[in-house]
Design a protein that fits this description.
It contains five helices and ten strands. It is an alpha+beta fold.
Length: 248
């Protein structure tokens, strides 16, 4: 009986449902966020390279946006680059901060920044500095927790920090529209980047309407767990019945 319990525990803890990230088993991951909104991400964080669209996955903004907007994957054709909206819900604050109160900087936990929220809240990663502006050891900051996602390009922050494009323009008043928001997964830094002059990675995401979401079909591992639980229950009932027979 103890062996059965150990097997069940191992299988349950190694399942593919992690917190509010759900593996759809079709190359996509559904994210259920704190406010009930839902997003679907490509499980492969560098699918532009994997699919052969780009040699290394790093592209100028217009190419990255075109790739995401025209992508058809897992039966869906409404993919896009992640959005970066004002953390305060109304207007952008372009000042730098380390406590997430402005739109440029570290430790941004706002739902309005889809990449920052995924990095900090969903995956539980830490930025280059904490909210008191203390620099963290290299072993503590960055994209150490990848959850259910794969193929996230690893680069030391000194040599190109896993920078990903946002689909949102970085529109500073009285300034030409030459920049877009981006997020550095190696350091947790949200910042702008130059559209035609910089090459960043692209991670496709789509908005999911909760009413349309269906729970993935049970996997082999799930069915196996259910079967083992059933066997364990049968074993318990058998032993109880045996005890009753002995007492009589």
């Amino acid at each position: 009986m103890k062996k059965l319990v150990l097997v069940i525990s191992f299988l349950l803890f190694s399942s593919t449902v992690q917190a509010t990230l759900i593996d759809n088993f079709d190359g996509t991951i559904t994210q259920i966020r704190d406010d009930g909104s839902m997003l679907m991400w490509l499980q492969d964080a560098n699918y532009a390279k994997t699919s052969g669209f780009d040699s290394d996955g790093e592209m100028i903004w217009s190419d990255a946006k075109s790739w995401a907007d025209n992508l058809t994957f897992a039966g869906y054709d409404n993919w896009r680059l992640p959005s970066t909206l004002p953390v305060n819900g109304s207007n952008y604050d372009y000042n730098f901060s380390v406590n997430g109160t402005t739109d440029v900087g570290y430790n941004i936990f706002s739902l309005n920044s889809e990449m920052a929220y995924l990095f900090y809240l969903e995956l539980g990663n830490k930025g280059f500095v904490d909210i008191s502006n203390n620099v963290l050891p290299f072993s503590e900051f960055g994209m150490h927790n990848t959850g259910l996602f794969t193929n996230i390009p690893y680069q030391h922050p000194d040599f190109g920090p896993q920078q990903y494009w946002s689909g949102t323009d970085y529109s500073v008043p009285h300034s030409p529209d030459t920049h877009a928001w981006s997020f550095k997964f190696a350091t947790g830094h949200q910042i702008a980047d130059h559209k035609p002059g910089s090459e960043d990675f692209a991670w496709a995401v789509r908005t999911v309407i909760p009413e349309s979401f269906t729970v993935p079909e049970p996997t082999t591992i799930t069915l196996l767990c259910i079967g083992i639980v059933g066997l364990a229950g049968a074993e318990v009932r058998r032993r109880r019945k045996k005890k009753v027979v002995v007492k009589s």
